[in-house]
Amino acid sequence: MQWYQLDKEKLEQKLHVTTERGLSSKQVEKRQKQHGANELDPGKQTAKWLIFIKQFQDFMVLVLLAATLIAGLLGEYIDAIAIMVIVFVNGFIGFFQEQKAEKSLAKLKELSAPFAYVLRDKNWERKPSRDIVVGDVIKVSSGDRIPADMRIVDSNSMETEESTLTGESLPVAKHTNSLNKQDLGPQDQSNMAFMGTLVTRGSGTGIVVGTGMNTVMGQIASLMVKTKKTITPLEHKLAELGKILIIVALILTALVVVVGVYQGHPVYNMFLAGVSLAVAAIPEGLPAIVTVALSLGVQRMIRKNAIVRKLSAVETLGSASVICSDKTGTMTENQMTVKEVYLNDTRLDVTGDGYDLLGDFYSNNNRVDNQFPNLKSMLLYGMICNHASILVKKGKNFINGDPTDGALLVAARKLGLNQSDSEPYRIIKEIPFDSTRKRMSMIVEDENKRQFLITKGAPDVLLPRSAFIMSTNEKRLMKTADKEKINNEINKMGDKALRTIAIAIKPITGKQNDGLLEDDLTFVGLYGMIDPPRKEVRAAIEDCKEAGIKTVMITGDHEKTARAIATDLNILPEDGLVMDGYQLNQMSSNELKEIIDRVYVFARVTPEHKLKIVDAFQQNGHIVAMTGDGVNDAPAIKASNIGISMGRSGTDVAKEASSLILMDDNFATIKAAINEGRNIYENIRKFIRYLLASNVGEILVMLFAVLLGLPLPLVPVQILWVNLVTDGLPAMALGLDQPEADVMNRKPRPPKEGIFARGLGFKIVSRGLLIGLVTLIGFMMTYQGNPENLVYAQTIAFTTLVMAQLIHVFDCRSERSVFSRNPFGNKYLVLAVLSSIAMLLCVIYFAPLQPIFHTVFLGIRDWIFILALSAIPTVFFGFTKR
């Protein structure tokens, strides 16, 4: 039912109610049974213990748990405990993240008003909002939150703040007239008030037409319940990697065990070696290292004004190919600012943005002051006919009241006017703003007891009522040419997306007829104001373009405003398209998918539209980042690959649905996050390369030795020691590596790009093969077929493997060559390598550990031999650059 189309009489007939009596008790009881309570349904809830169990259903986790059990049975308790700790820590992290995400609907419910004033059986009563039913007559006033969707039947200058629901940046004036248009979105239903929105001005009465899940807020809650959480690229790639590693590891270890037993090695020894190799081949420390790398990225992001609610969000943003950004507050200051003034047939430019009181007035690039004819008077009138005030908190200016009134106050302060300048003027009477009248007036008396009227309002309303105009020297009759000039200036301001407000005055002589009070006005001038773009956003958008990321503006504002801001920020190319909500309604999902890559601006959109837009981009293979601050943004934020909410202006609902919160509500912070995200992903690739190349080396040295009929070059405890101690610290240090210089000049990674893309698979196998070969060469050259040399040869092989890995870690810092970066540029890596070497020396030279780790003392010649072998893989590939 399109309630906004019905007039009051038809509405009362349809709902069997009158605004004089309200509903009867019987009607209320019947409707409560029929429609239920006026509250949002949180949907099907999953038990907490099931959410926790679900964290351990991953195949890689199950295999690790099985390996842990076997390792424990074989007495390898340290390894078993380490794996269990890592698995359970990651399980708890996933559990708590999922719990936080599901709080979104609870935050939605908090937006509902707790109580409402309801007319029942001719009596006004204060009732809990959950007891409201369709047909109830509700009274609201300034400061109240709307308890349900209702059709306004009486409005006394009523305005509601709907930005959290519709994205509209300014308060919406409400009227009682029916609207005849079809399929209007909530942002255009100016005779309706919606659940969860706030009355900012005036008062009104309405008849409830929707409760609970049948409200616009309920539709958003329903979308959030139905919207599926999108798996991040990192989660997908790690899952893919885990499956590959498990299959390869099981095949290779099974081959080692079978061949070893066939060649006469004891079954128990080969089984223990096989389990050790399986555990070594599956880098169970990888999830923990990824978590640490992302956590450190989160700490860096906090210093850049971004709070990460979900660790993988940082990496995901680094792979984003489209940013769908809200306009108001993210790309703009969310502070209405007067940018132009028109008076005396002259346009003045006003400098300064937002609520900063510093700024100047210019005519043709020449600064003017308060001596400019009529300028001081015009700004003074705008200051007197005003209900806003400027507040200062922590050194920053804020507006208490209507943003438009605030813009007029700030403009006056830029010319040097302040509160003391308006004190000589006493307000006699006020005719408040009304959405039908589109103007407000005040009768004031100056210090000489002269009274005059100040009227402020829409130019198309004041201009026909103006018989005179203020010129440079005097007041004179307004001519047709004057009106044409003013209308021409209004159109020019409109093309720049400036909102225009006119100021007019009228002397009061004798008794005035109230009906004629606002006629025969003297036109003073025009204000042109806008919510200005943030200074740093244009550069951030350019940086995103260079990084291959498309920026799309999505707003609830009008198309002309959106187009002007997008053009100013250089978002909209010459051949770029702008679409509004009406056009989106006429398009199917497939039609939108075909055209969406050419669209850069979406205006007058609803929550359903935003979901449709995000889905269309994702259907075309994009990784989508969606920003927003309102309840209306929450479903699309949740559906996107990465949801970004605003820390200052954002609602709790948007924050709970998001993965990243911008503390400064600034688009430029997103660019910093992209830089950080790309670097983190590259660092993850670095330590995956390091860990897997090391593991490949360990498996191959064992496999080759078994195939050649040699004794095992490494005993199980050495394999586990390398896996748990030597690999861990350097891999973690790689997660702290600084970004390479060209990280923001690369195109976004294709969504289907595998973790081994761009030659990573070749690097892992080739380096691992060479590490395994030099380790085997070291073993064979010292063993020489003499069983008495076995422990000595195993010590050489063990040390060669460790040193080859520790030298190789510096090669992992670059996709190009070990010689392309300063090897000492990452001080954490240098410390990690030195720590691993110190632990290696303890195992070799600390006598009590020698029998445990099967090692013996090594001399200088041994070390020269080991270091020469260990350097071969890194030096060889450093020169080949492959």
UniProtKB/TrEMBL annotation:
Q: Which residues cross the membrane?
A: 56-74, 244-264, 270-294, 687-712, 718-736, 764-783, 789-807, 828-848, 860-879
Q: Which GO terms describe its molecular function?
A: ATP binding; ATP hydrolysis activity; P-type calcium transporter activity; P-type sodium:potassium-exchanging transporter activity
What's the protein's topology in the membrane?
Answer: Multi-pass membrane protein
Query: Keyword annotations for this protein?
Result: ATP-binding, Cell membrane, Ion transport, Magnesium, Membrane, Nucleotide-binding, Phosphoprotein, Translocase, Transmembrane, Transmembrane helix, Transport
List locations, semicolon-separated. Cell membrane
Under the heading InterPro entries, the entry gives: ATPase_P-typ_cation-transptr_C, ATPase_P-typ_cation-transptr_N, ATPase_P-typ_cyto_dom_N, ATPase_P-typ_P_site, ATPase_P-typ_TM_dom_sf, ATPase_P-typ_transduc_dom_A_sf, ATPase_P-type_domA, Cation_transp_ATPase_P-type
In this chain the Cation-transporting P-type ATPase N-terminal domain maps to 2-76
Which biological process terms from the Gene Ontology are attached to this UniProt entry?
A: intracellular potassium ion homeostasis; intracellular sodium ion homeostasis; potassium ion import across plasma membrane; proton transmembrane transport; sodium ion export across plasma membrane
Q: Which Pfam families match?
A: Cation_ATPase (PF13246), Cation_ATPase_C (PF00689), Cation_ATPase_N (PF00690), E1-E2_ATPase (PF00122)
Q: What is the reaction catalyzed?
A: Ca(2+)(in) + ATP + H2O = Ca(2+)(out) + ADP + phosphate + H(+)
A GO CC term?
plasma membrane
Q: Which PANTHER family would you find in this protein's record?
A: CATION TRANSPORTING ATPASE, SODIUM/POTASSIUM-TRANSPORTING ATPASE SUBUNIT ALPHA
Q: Which NCBIfam families match?
A: ATPase-IIA1_Ca, ATPase_P-type
Annotated family: Belongs to the cation transport ATPase (P-type) (TC 3.A.3) family. Type IIA subfamily.
Q: What is this protein called?
A: Calcium-translocating P-type ATPase, SERCA-type
Record the organism. Answer: Virgibacillus phasianinus
- Give the lineage: Bacteria, Bacillati, Bacillota, Bacilli, Bacillales
